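Give me the fold.
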Amino acid sequence: MALLEVTGLTHAFGDKLLYKDSGFEIYKGEHVGIVGQNGAGKSTLIKILLKEILPDKGTIKWQNNITIGHLDQYAMVEEEQSILEYLRTAFEKLYKIEEKLNVLYMKMAEDYSESLLNKVAKYQEELEEKNFYGIDSNIQKVASGLGITAMRMDTKLKNLSGGQRAKVILAKLLLQEPEVLVLDEPTNFLDKEHVEWLSEYLQTFKGAFLIVSHDFDFLEKVTTCICDIEFNKIRKYKGKYSSFLKQKGLLREEYIRQYEAQQKEIKKLEDYIAKNKVRASTAQMAKSREKRLEKMEKIEKPTFTSKPHLHFNSIQTTAQVVLEVNGLEVGYYYPLLPKMKFEVCNGEKLVITGFNGIGKSTLLKTLMGEIPAISGSFRFSDAIKKIGYYEQDLKWDNPESTPLAIMQQDFLELNQKQLRKHLADCGIKRENVMQEISTLSGGEQAKVKLCKLVLTPCNILILDEPTNHLDVDTKEELRKALKEFDGTVILVSHEASFYKDLATHVVSIENLCIKRI
C-alpha cells in the first residue's frame, strides 16, 4: 500500500501551467528527490502535498494516521528557549509519560495496588522502547552532526541567525523521526561537513522522505528514486540521481525520434490529401486519410529549456593589492571572530568557507559598508571603481515589482527589448518577466539578481552563497563566467564541487585571523 497517492494533478500559477494530469506514488522506505528547472514547481508541489495549497484539479491521498515531518525554516518558536530546551520538545510526549509515571510512583507510595503496578509497568516499557533514557545522548549526536554544539546549547533561539535557526529546526525534525520527512533545500544552510553527516543520516533513515535540492552530489548519495518535473508532467524514475539522468536522456532521444517520425507521417498525409482531394477517382481515399489525420494524437513539439548565458564585465585596474584588512573585528553586538588581518591581490579568486553562522556573511556585509566594523579597519584600493555584490538573502525593495521593472529602474539606458533579452540570457522565462518578483521561485529570483550583476561592469565581485536555489545548468554557467572574469572574486560558498576548479585560494574564515593570504 502506498504512503502517498497523487492522481490527476493539474495546477497553474496565474497563466503559467505547472503540472497537467500528473500522478505518482510514494511507498514505505522510498527516498525521493524532487528535481526540475527553476520555476518548474518543485516548492509548489511540496506545498500541495502538505495541503498548504489546494491544486486546481487532482487528489492527494496520504495513508491514514501517517506522521509527516516538514522542514519549515520560518516556524514559530519560543524565542526565550535555549537550543537544548527546544530540541527536547521533540520528545514532548515521552516527557508527559514520565510525568504520569512519577505521579503513579507517588500514589504507590501511599496505596500500593496491582492495577497501579500494571500501569507503571506499561509506561516504563513504553519509555524504554522509545529510548527515553537516551534522549540527551541522541540530542548530542544530532546536534554535533549538524554543527549546533559549536553555538553552545544554552544559547537562546532569539540570538540565532537565520541559518543557525533553520539548522536547529532541522535537528528537532530529525529527532522526532516521523514516518515521512519532507525537506525543501535542506543543504542551503549547512556546511560541507554537516551536509556529509546529513547524507549519512538519511541513507540509513528507515522512513520515507521527499527532498527538493539543487545539490546533486547530495541527491546522488541519499535518494533511491527521483521525481522530475518537466513539460508540465511529474515523472518518477527508479534509482539514484545519476541513473535518472541516463534514463531521462534515453527518453528524450526516444521522444524526439517519435516526434520526428510523426511529423514525417503528417507531412506525407497532408501532401497526399492536397494532391488527391479534388480528383474524383482518389477523393474518397483522400477523405479517409483526412479523417485519419484528424484522429491522430499529436505529439507536442519538444521545447527543451535553453541554457542560460552569463558573462561578467570586468573593469581593468592597475592596483596590485585590491583589499587590505587590518585588525578587523566583525559582528553586531559583539565580535563573531578574533581580529582579522589579510590582503587580497588583483585577479585572485578567493573562496571563503567555514561553519554556518561563524561570520562569513557578516564579513562581506562589513566590507560592503552595510554594517559597521566593531574595531580595526579595511581599505579597498583607490584604483577600484566598482564592486559587484551578490547578497545571499532574496530581499527586494518592492516585492510587487516585476523583473522587468526592477531592471528598468537600475538600467535606464537600456530599452525594454534589450532588458528582456538580458533576462532571457540569464534564464528568466518570457512568461515570468512580468510576474511579481515575490511570486517567483528562489532560483528565478536569484537569476534576476545575477542579471543585475552581469550588467554592472566592476573590478571586484563579492558573492555570498550565489548557488543557493540555482539549477544545474545555471550553476555550471555561473562557474564558467566566474572563471572567465578578469577581475577579482571574493566568494563565500559551501559547495566544494562548485568552487574546486575556480578558486586560486580556498581558506576557512577562522584562518583569516592567523595567516596572511
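The first strand starts at residue 4 and ends at 13.
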